[in-house]
Structures are given as structure tokens and as C-alpha cells.
UniProtKB/TrEMBL annotation:
Record-level GO cellular component terms: cytosol; extracellular exosome; microvesicle
Protein name (record): Glycine--tRNA ligase
Compartmental location: Cytoplasm
Gene: glyS
Residue ranges the record marks as coiled coil: none
Positions with a binding annotation for ATP: 200-202, 210-215, 285-286, 329-332
Enzymatic reactions: tRNA(Gly) + glycine + ATP = glycyl-tRNA(Gly) + AMP + diphosphate
Family: Belongs to the class-II aminoacyl-tRNA synthetase family.
Top class in the EC scheme: ligase
Organism of provenance: Spiroplasma tabanidicola
Keyword Transferase included in the entry's annotation: no
Keywords: Aminoacyl-tRNA synthetase, ATP-binding, Cytoplasm, Ligase, Nucleotide-binding, Protein biosynthesis
Family matches, as SUPFAM superfamilies: Class II aaRS ABD-related, Class II aaRS and biotin synthetases
Amino acid sequence: MKIEMEKLIAHLKSMGFVFQGSEIYGGLANSWDYGPLGAELKNNLKQAWWDFFIKKNPYNIGLDTSIIMNSKVWQASGHVGNFNDPLLDCKNCKSRWRADKLIEEKFLDLNVGGWSDTQLEDFIKEKQIKCPKCEKCDFTNIRKFELMFKTNQGVVEDASSIVYLRPETAQGIFVQYKNAQRTLRKQLPFGIGQIGKSFRNEITPGNFIFRTREFEQMELEFFFSPNDSKDWFEYWLNQVQEFLDNIVKISKENYILREHDKEELAHYSSRTVDIEFKFPFGIGELWGIANRGNFDLSQHQKVSGEDLTYLDPNTNEKYLAHVIEPSVGVERLLLAIFCQSYKEEKLDNGERIVMQLPVNLAPYKIAILPLQKQQIDKSLEVYEHINKNLNIACTFDEKGNIGKRYRRQDAIGTPYCITIDFDTQNDNCVTIRNRDTMEQERISIPDLNSYLKNKLS
Ligand code: GAP
């Protein structure tokens, strides 16, 4: 089913997943806040990534580095001077556009990632691409627009106090690579991952939470010997797909793999494959897997003067490790999950919206619903047992008719509803309703533990 973004966004707002940022002040363009259920879901997603890539992977360890770093980090990484977008202004209506996006939005099969400014300008003129606002084709030449947010640290505002909000979490890992390796006594190959906020002053943010100026990344930098014969790129490409297929349950038919051609590769990469998701507004990058070689470590070694080489205990050789980087945005993955989970269904007795979230990501796994006031005490007992003793995220809802309460739980993606009714005090059983099939089963309370363990594992 093709979903409409407006409907999805309205649903996520009305259910407490995503709110417009600074809403009571008229909002702030393209900023979004995560409501009570969005925050739970986001935490579950980050936890799933951390479990899979850090805790359960035999090679990897985690880090948590600062957003604001020494400015030399960004000179070494190439971000100062290179991390910019090609902008042009419409001479007629004075609106400002990204040249590459103007072309790609008109010619959907074209990828102009590696084109020079002159190529972009010439193509726009030759094809007479018009300003989306006033429909004239009369643009200025391209100017470069710096994407890093710049500010000053401390009380003095001069060149020496300039700092940047990090545009990627990766550099924090490269800068602490040696400390992490030494203190944990890691031998190659090993990886370091982290989750954290990144900031980019994007010219064309949009498509809801797809491209924003403040977002979170989950990045892994995997270090290995340049003499290692194992194909680590293929290994991580497979791991990412395993995570998508089995942990967050993105169906294979909803994404594609796209290999970057030579002209499109970033300055640090010798190979990049993007996993692209079929969003309702078009295919877009979800997860990038790049071979960064030893670009970052050699740059940081050069600029900092610190020896970042690795002494191979097997060969006694000293060399700089090479790196494979799988990098994904939390919100972009969340959007893919929202798009895939949101379903509008016609029923015999009406219709419903159901979020078919994977069980591990759902904000609540279970809702406890007493049928009437008389069953509240017994219901609270079951609720406390599941929430506290079994440590399963559980909600309690006693208000409104049972049909409406089921609909609300469907709409927020709760996989199971447990109803305590008139018969419970006689037969010590509850009714369990499945979100997706809407089928109901009668289960005795003493069997609940093993039933839930089995269903939620
Ligand atoms: N360290 C490599 C790096 O940052 P990237 O392709 O620029 O590479 C990696 O970003 C991922 O971060 C993207 O695949 C996307 O999921 C996410 N991302 C990048 N820019 C974003 C933005 N403005 N808003 C939301 N997510 C973004």
C-alpha cells in the first residue's frame, strides 16, 4: 500500500510519536521533537543497534565522545573547506537552491554526486531547468555553502575560539582510536561504534524527519590490517542487511543496494554502497557502507603529530589500520520503520489504523485493559507483575469502550492486549488479543509468564 506522508505525519503527532519542534511559538522549520512514544521507540531502536553491533558482535567496543571538539579535528578530516553544498540564487525571485538537487529532482535517474560546479551550471543552462518557485531559468553562478554549524567557545569571540558542532560522530572515534585500542588491549581487527547527535546546516532539509539539521547517527568504524585477506566490506554489508532483515524487520522488497560510481565517491572513500529505502516521496539513502582506507588515521596523525600506527604483534610490522564504516541516521531508519509499519485497514465493522511495529521496537509490548471498574484491582495486579517482575514494557488503560481501547493500542503498535473480564474471577483466565491478526485466546494467569516469554522473544 502506498501511504500518504501527510496522513502518516498527522497520525504520528496525534498518537504522541513526533511533534513539531517549538510548536507553541509557531515552530522552527524542519525541527521535530519526539513525544512519549517516539522517545520510547527511538530508545528501543538505538538499543537494538547497540546490542547487535557492539554487545553481541565479537569484534566491537563502544564509545561516547563530545559533540564539540578541537577545531583542528575538522581541518584534519577535510570538513573545513570541503564540507559544503553548491548553492545558486534565482536572479528573478531571489530564492536559493542546491544546484545538484535542482537537477536530480527533475531528472530522477541522474546522480550528479561527483559533478564539478561548472558541469552543474552548464547542465542547468542546457536543459533550461527552471526555478521551482517562479519558473524562470536565470540563476547566479554556484557558491559554496559551509554545512558545519559554527560557534565560539568561552567569552572571547575571535578566530581562536571558533568551534563547530560535529557533522558526524565518526571523527570522535578516530580521535580516540588509540586510547580505546590501548586501554582495552584490542588487536586488529576490531571496531568502535557510537551513537550520538550530529549537526548539519542543510540547505534543503525536508521530507519530515528524512533530512534535518539536527539528527542522530549510529556509526561503526571497523579497523583492520591492510594485509588482512578477509573481505571486511562484504562482511559489514551483510551484517547491516542482517540487522535490517532480522532485527528491525525491514522487508527486502522495500530497499535496494546501490554501488557508488567512481565520480560520486566521497574524497575519503574507495568504495561506497548505499542501502536505499523506497520512501513514499522517492528512493533515498538509508545506510552508507564506505571503505575509508587509512584516510582518517593518516590525516589525524599528520595534523596532530601523534603516532597512530599499530604494531602488529604477529609480524612486528607498524602500519596504519584501514577502515570500513557502516553509518546510519537514527531518524532516517525510524522513518523507514514508520513508513513500513503504518497500515490503514478496512474491517467488517469499520476501519482501523495499525502500526505493525516489530515487537522489540514497540513502545509497549502489552496493554492491560480491565473490561469494567470491578476488574481494576485484579488488572493492576497483572500489570504490576508484567511490568515489574517480568520487566516487559506494559501500559494500563481503563477508559472508554473496549473496541476503542483496542483501536488505540493498534494505532500505537502494541502487539498484545490483555483483557480482564467478568469470567476472570471464576476461571483465573484472561483474554489475549493479537494486534495483527486480531485473534483472541484465553490463557490462564499462571501460564502468562511462559506464554509471554514465548511470544515476545
Ligand atoms: N561518517 C559518514 C557520514 O556521516 P553520511 O552519508 O553523510 O556519512 C551517514 O551520513 C548517514 O547519516 C546517512 O546515510 C543518513 O542515514 C544519516 N544522515 C546524514 N545526513 C542527515 C540529515 N541531514 N538528516 C538525517 N539523517 C542524516
